[in-house]
Design goal:
mainly beta; four-stranded antiparallel beta sheet; about 50% strand
């Protein structure tokens, strides 16, 4: 059973930083995509960043480019999202997800999801 468990969320002031973690287990895919998504109240879930393990390619939403960095520690089976220069509009529930093939911007293409971790940024 694939399990994804996020942690690291919290409340920060604008300009601050947070690092989210996603502990992954229960999968044996050779190449796959790990992604971070977020959903703010009354808004659709949107892709934030993703990494394809086959060639280590990374992808970012335009709104977070230059501020967020996605990385993966294979030894720890953990996905990270380093978030710097946080803005109030980054406030959302953040989810990690896994897809058994190439990355996609569409949340429905990802097969497994974590329970989410809340990020709140105050001005």
């Amino acid at each position: 059973q694939v399990q994804l468990v996020e942690s690291g969320g919290g409340s920060v002031q604008a300009g601050g930083s947070l690092r989210l973690s996603c502990a992954a287990s229960g999968y044996t895919y050779s190449s796959y995509c790990l992604g971070w998504f977020r959903q703010a109240p009354a808004k659709e879930r949107e892709g934030v960043a993703a990494i394809y393990t086959g060639n280590r390619s990374t992808y970012y939403a335009d709104s977070v480019k230059g501020r967020f960095t996605i990385s993966q520690d294979n030894a720890k089976n953990t996905l990270y999202l380093q978030m710097n220069s946080l803005k109030p509009e980054d406030t959302a529930m953040y989810y990690c997800a896994i897809r058994r093939t190439y990355c996609s911007r569409i949340s429905g293409d990802f097969e497994y999801w974590g329970q989410g971790t809340q990020v709140s940024v105050s001005s």
